[in-house]
Amino acid sequence: MTQKIKDLFAGDIYRRIEEVIKVDQTDEQVIREEMGEYIVTSTIRDHFREILDRYYETLNKPHEGIGIWVSGFFGSGKSSFAKMLGLGLQNRTIQDQSAAKLLAERAHDNKITILLNQISERIPTDAVVFDVSTDRGIRSGNQMLTEIMYRLFLKSLGYANDLDLAELEITLEQKGQLEGFAAKYRELFDQEWDHNKDLISFSLGEASAVMHALYPERYAAQDTWIQAVQDRADINPGRLAERCKELMTRRRSHRHLVFVIDEVGQFVSKDVQKMLDLQAIIQNMGRVGRGKLWVIVTSQEKLTELVGGLDDKRVELARLMDRFTLQIHLEPSDISEVTSKRVLAKNAPAEKRLRELYAANSGRLTANTRLSADITLPELSEDRFRDLYPLLPYHIDLIINVVSGLRLQGGASKHVGGANRTIIKLAQQLLIHEKVALAEQSVGTLARIDQIYDLVAGNLPSELRGKIEDIRAKVSHPLAQPVAKAICLLQFVKSIHRTAENIAAALHPGVDSDSRLAPVREALQALVDSHQVRLADNQYRIPSPAEDDWEVVRASFKANPGDINRLHTDIINSLWEPKPSHNFLDAKIFKAGLSLNGRIQCEEDIPFLVTLADAATDYDSQAQEARKRSQSERTSVFWVAGLDEKIDRETVELYRSREILARKERAAKTKDETALVKEEKTRMGLHESELRRLL
Length: 695
Known about the structure:
By secondary structure, this protein is an alpha/beta fold. It has 31 helices and 14 strands.
């Protein structure tokens, strides 16, 4: 009985895997599952040790180096890393289990275990964790990070979300009057203040009425308080730090505070004021807290890249890099290890089966799946084949780059790519999604790039998806659509060349299959001929709308018989340069003259009478006529050439290239227009060269 791929795995490949990790997830079941499956690679283990060690040392050596910048390319797992770090420091209880203990179990490292235990016992910590790119608690894109942090910090301590109401609570609490306020609210409205205070439309007016009832001599009318204070509460980085210290002492005595903020890089990018705000936050948190107030942020870019990308070179921005004394960068290379352990881990019999399969086919498999690229891709080996099958080692890098490219392009959905989970999810979906269902295929079948396309197509612009979908009806070759899908995704991977060889490798169907290069070449030619794909600089691509428009205009040019004759005349004349000649016995040089279709092009010693005839209709009669004349005109050479479909096609294509360049070249101004002109000149040269060869 043929073994199926689904029988190879050690775990349940059909289990739920979240699409995108959320740093502010509150569902304990989800958090428990995430922590239970979190993979700590050797690199991540080193980063945890460094950060936990620095955090613990503030107990005896207070310092201001409280900023941690965690950067990572799409798929590196920076959000997971920051979340696990926050959970471990906070050591919250997750379904009756210690988060620090759960993290220590995943790390498999004695030093990390000891540090987490020591921090839990001697530095109890609260954490405010949020994603600044989402809209929960964030009112507008113009808000500074200071205000966002303050609102969410107040919420974590149980204060009102509205700054004016929170300021009222803080002041009343300081004077010992907050309980009296809540009692008067209950008396007036027969409800609890804490239940209603975040219903801002009502609670501001109700609070004003309570203040009037409690202090009528100070607030003469029910709306006096609200008119006096509304929108007056303000916050700045210095006051944020002071308030964090003050209120933690008041409501969370003897506990430290950690902010874990996801996607800060995206939030402050290219905004000097937001960058300066972040710099002031870290500076003041360090100055005021002295190791008791920490800020951990994540970013797609390294801090040096983010600051270096700004035109503004003021000294405060340079200081921002000094404020983040710990700058951690997670590499996407770890994702292969994470994916192999999370989704693709094999059972013992499967490992033996895959080793045997690799040994029997390693040579042809390596040859048929090798990609040429500007970067070094992971090499195929027995261990990598076993760990990642039915994917190949380069598939993970390919998926990371595709997902990254999709996220950068306009129109992509908010959570396309970026997260470690998304790469892992795609690997799982290749196995179980009904569009692909590799799990149900026989062992030996490989994942292909067109299958990856099927899973991410929803994140492509609808116009591009429609173009790929229409190819099935427009091009009859069975590989035309898979080849187009491969080209489409490879366009998001700038470092991998979109050649016929690479496309065939990315579409290789099985471990023991023959190369697909020949049929892929046929499909590519059919796609190019039908203008569904363009070839430029030896690489294929799906045309852009501007390129489609160019092709429509180009195809509208129709060559009449006179145009065709002129082109043939130009080509034949070019073949006569320099004029053919023969040195007869070193006594005399005879040069060849040319007459084309009865018209003399140049007169020399020996006339060549060339006739171009339609191969299907009058070639035979023209050849017979030439033979007859040659018997009487013995000083001339007669030459009849048959014009077939290939010559006709190349002639038309050359005519169209010349015509569109004549109309477009001088008017080209934009970068895209100039590029199209350049490509058309290259195409014209190829058609001209081929027509010369055929004639």
